Amino acid sequence: MRKIMALLIVLVLCFSSFAYAxxxxxxxxxxxxxxxxxxxxDVIQIEEYDGTLHTLPFTNEAIYIIDDRDAKLVDFKSGMExxxxxxxxKINYIESYSTQNPGYIKEGSKIRVGTVKKxxxxxxxxxxxxxxEKTFFTSPATVTIKxxxxxxxxxxxxxxxxxxxxxxxxxxxxxxxxxxxxxxLIKNMYKGKIAVPNNLEDNITLENVQYFKxxxxxxxxxxxxxxxxxxxxxxxxxxxxxxxxxKYYKGKTAYMVVKGFFGDxxxxxxxxLVIKNQYEATFSDKIxxxxxxxxxxxxxxxxxxxFNDGTIIIKNGxxxxxxxxNPKSDAYIIADGRNNSLMADLIxxxxxxINNSNTGQNHVYSGQLDEIDTYSIKLDDxxxxxxxxxxxxxxxxxxxxxEDTYIYDLENKKVIKPQELAAQDYAVDEDSDYAKxxxxxxxxxxxxxxxxRISAIYVQKNMDSLLRQRTTNGLVESVENDSKLGWTxxxxxxxxxxxxxxxxxxxxTSINISIDKxxxxxxxxxxxxxxxxxxxxxxxxxxxxxxxxxxxx
Length: 553
Hints:
This protein is mostly beta strands. It folds into 6 domains: 22-96, CATH 2.40.50.140; 110-184, CATH 2.40.50.320; 188-275, CATH 2.40.50; 279-349, CATH 2.40.50.320; 362-460; 469-552, CATH 2.40.50. Strand 22 and strand 23 (296-299) form a beta hairpin. The N and C termini lie far apart (61 Å).
């Protein structure tokens, strides 16, 4: 009997080890399996099959094997599936295969890992670490997850790194999409002269360093050393520079974009580097037309500029490839060359919108609450935000709410229940004796919707002057809860939409935004003021310093 009980205990313990992720199991077992998540220098981040992350260095005598042959650490790329043995908390043996196998396949399911190349409604094109591309499909049943929370598919951007899960091995219909967190976002853009490229220590030291802020380059004191290795190609004039030749470019100006390392903003790593070849010219203008065959685009000022695989292109805070450029984009451009022969070294796209792609159906309305019934609202003389401008409609619009709709009364500073919205006097028959006797008028609202469903609505007695309002996008520089002013944001890299010029206009200084009375949205849901963090990208509807609708992108 004791033997049977002992055996049952052992079996329970065995099955428990499979049911729950254990951060320490690789160190007890002496080995680790999974994927290479990220790598800088001689430190590697491995994601186990269950999603647990480990950041590990290597022993001095570590053995590297790819395809059963000796290799070097630099040969191991992000996305590779690996097996490694451990000596304490260091890797002493690691092996992988160079063949295309972006995901671990097990019975009844498969996984694919890559970077989003294109989003077209229900089609999602991924680019794998090998350079190969494949298109997959979403369905109404597809679940999208970011930072362990369910989000709308509209939370996905071109340039995001994702893990796709499939319920059937031979299916291209995605069951679950896991979006990598903020580590995918560009942290800084630098410009400086190459002082000391150190191939042995895998880093580059810059002098005369500048960083990009508020539409211009600002000086940064002292030298700056940034981790770098030959996994990221170096370009000059559209040509790849061998890593071993970087030392010959000492004194040359380099442009680079950096990200946080393993989600740590204090540690930066270079994502892309371009060396200036001839003479610098800068433009802040609209890209009118693009010819991908000849690899050039025409600006609104009729200047033609070339681009290539080496051009640094930043869009929605992410590093993207040249095919992600779109006509009618507003951008800051650094071009290299002379006279009429210019090649873009860097293109920083300003554009933002309410929806991240054509999968989104979110809208922002403002208007008079003409009728309120159970779970429905009729707007009168309403406005809708279209292409960053308020467009008016002398008409009525039916919208629908439910028990999950967030409703806030700005006058009384309180959340109200759906039943209260219908029962109280937020919409009245203004010609009735009841309304005249009590001097009642219809209220107005700022409304954020998913299609015709109201996700959130802020109601107030009087209509704001929408003519005074403008749309702005930018990056949160600081957040402060002032005892007198309330919650206030300082926003850098701000761009205002110009109706007259029909383009985003960069501001040359940071701006302050009061958010105490703003409708705040993130991932399709309302959030609190304290949920906005430094580094968040925002799409803002504002009246001078007063935010009205703020969407965290």
